[in-house]
Every structure is written in C-alpha cells, then in structure tokens.
Design brief:
11-stranded mixed β-sheet, 8 helices, 23 strands, 443 residues, binds zinc ion, alpha+beta
Amino acid sequence: MLLHIGLDDTDSPEGGCTTYVAALLAESLLAMGAEFTDYPTLLRLNPNTPWKTRGNASVCLRLNLDEARQGEAKKAALELVDRYGEFWCDNTNPGVVYHVGEVPPEVKEFSDRTVKQIVSLLEAEAIIEGHGMAAVGWKNRRGIIGALAAVGGTLEGDHTYEVLTYRTPENWGRGRRVDAESVRGMDRALGDVTFNNVDEEGRPLIAPHGPDPVLYGVRGETAEAVYRAFTMVEALEPVERWMIYRSNQGTDAHFGAPVKVRELRPFNPAVVEARVISIPETLHGGHVIFKVSDGSEEVDCAAYEPTGGFRHIVWALIPGDLLRIYGGVRETEGGVTLNIEKLEVLDIADDVEYMNPRCPACGGSTESMGQGQGYRCKKCGHRDRGLVKVPISKPRDLKPGVYLPDRDAHRHLTKPLERYGREKKHTPSPMIEGWIGFPARSP
Ligand SMILES: [Zn+2]
C-alpha cells in the first residue's frame, strides 16, 4: 500500500533539520521492507512566511509498505520527531501527516498555495479531515501545514534534485570541512547539470554555515548528476549518511502570474510589471530603493545590500524603464515594500539630456541670452532668438534581460539563470541505486 509521510518544522535557528529526520526515517522504513516510489520530496514553502525557521523546507517520503507494518512506520516517524525536534524554540511547531493512496488533486492545489502565499492551519485540518488522512501536530501544530504541503508536492512540473550529506553528531556545530578545490573541480566537470556550487569568485557555496547536521548539498538537474557530484566532492570529515531529494528548489515555484501593484499583500511572493518612477537611492547600509508604478498604484522596491553585478543594474535604472519585478512583499509603515529577488528589464527608457544648440552659422557652441531669448554663438557672435535647447539621447548602461543578485544571496526557490530553458514538464525516470546511503548500507 502506498504511504506518504509528510514532515515539517522540526528545526530551529540553533540546530536540527527536517531533512535529517527524514533521512533517519528513510533508513528505518527500508529496514521494514519499504519500497520507495519516488525520491523524498524536499519542498520549499513561501519564503516570506513570518514564522519560518531558516529555509522553510518540508519533506515527504513516498513508499509502498505492507499494511501490517504501517503502524510501525508511523510510530517511527513520531519517535524521530520527538527525539530530534527542537521543541524549546517558540518557532518550532512540528507536524507529521500520513496519507494512504494516490495524492488527491485538492492536496496538490493546497501545496501549490503553501509555496505561493500564506495558508491557515484551519484549511490544512479541513483537507486532512475531508480526505481521512492522519496528522500529528506538536505545540501550536503549525507544522501540519508544511507536512500536508509536502504530501501534495508531487512536483509533476519543473523540479530539481539535491544530494544532502549529513555530519556525524560529534561534528555538529563545528566548522565544516570540505575540500574547496574538489568543489571547484566538480563545478568545472558538472557545471552544466548542477547549479550554485560556487560563487562568482569561485568560493564554494554548497556547505551551509548554521549548526544543522548538513555537511553540504549539491543541487542539479538529475539524480545522476547530483550523485556524480557527491562522488567528486571531497569531505574532510566523516559523512554519516546522504540522501537525494527531488525538489522545487531553483524553479521559481513561489511566483505566480504578475499582479497589479494595488493587489500586493504582505508576506506573499509577487511579480509585478511596472515602470520606474524615481531615481534609485542608496540608503544607509547599502540598500537601494526606488519607486515603481503600474498605473494602479505605486510601491517602493528595495534591493538589500545588492552585490556585484546586480548592484550596478539597480543603480542604472531611471524613470521610464519598464520592469518585471520578482520579490517578496514586506509590510512597512504606511504600506508595503517589494523586496527584489529578481529583475527583468523589459524596456529601456530614453535618457534624454537637453543641450544648448550649435550655432547655425559656424557650428560653434552657444550660450543662452536669457529665458526664452534664444542663443548667441560664443565663437562668431551670431545671435538667433529662435534657437531652443535640443534633446540629446545619452547611451544607457543597461540592456533588456533577466538579472539576479549574486549566487550567495539567492533564495532556495530562485531559479538561477543557468536553469532558464531547462524547465522540466514530467516526473522523472526510475530512482537510481545510490539515492540513499547510511552507516548500515555503505556505497
Ligand atoms: Zn557661430
């Protein structure tokens, strides 16, 4: 019987990781004779949710298991959450959802909304009840939302993969040791089928910096690609286990169709098409802010400490430029601000400067004889009351196209430039042999 186990919100800023709980659970389930029907789902939820912990990731395991052993499987999940959940943290409210059979369309639709906006626990509980699913929530039970979203996150459209490797517990909280040169070598070899391995200067980006048990993760287009990357990256400390996930990371799944500026709501990701109406201003701390309008209303757009090339793109904007802006809506005093995650320059305004006319007699430069009084040639003295300033178009240091901040500032869901044109439309081929590894099952 097909069983889906969704998990969410076991981690805190001080440690833990829902994916690690899922990797331990997968080991237990395999020992019970489970046959996985898909890679574990790693679903990133709305990144603008105010109560998220770190990356806002939820996980679902999908497997065939004897009906007689399903009770044991459910119990294993609860025990692992009890053991590894960071319950002391106010913002950690774990949830586990079980579903037997095919995933109903309503659950898929709920999952999509959980990635794109704010959804309520009441909605989640109504769906769980309506479909006879089982759910367990700890504390304020909010994790049930993400756990249900993970169950519904079947990723039938675009998706990516990530191999996550985990550290042995004695190293948790210590500096991570991964050979940087091996990461650069892997990126050179697999740069077309993996992404965000190194930053613009070649520094590895695959290892997180927090206290969680992840040693490093490599993201890519196929399970084969991330597995090959795993064999090429040299860990300088023990890898306790690894697991390959299928994910909505790097797919822009949080962005829907463009909305009007007047329709922007706090905490939602949003896309708007609007024209710049103010010169970008750099604020204390390096943030750049400018106003846009689409006729329905105007809104401030903010680029937070934009680095590298992106900074220059934002600075190069002038009133009249037409943009498609991808960002997160933040509540501010007296309204909302759109925090820019990605910019598409659609149309570039003329940057016109009005200059004194040239002398019609000799071509020399002229000076004004006063407001509305015409111009006098500085070279030959020719006077002409009919002369007016002439518009000169200045070259623009900006081209139409898609612009992203540097890779280390990307959100998990942000689609990197190298993925454009690689969007998938189908679920994947059968799982590869090396999708999981743990101490009792070495490679
Ligand atoms: Zn002249």
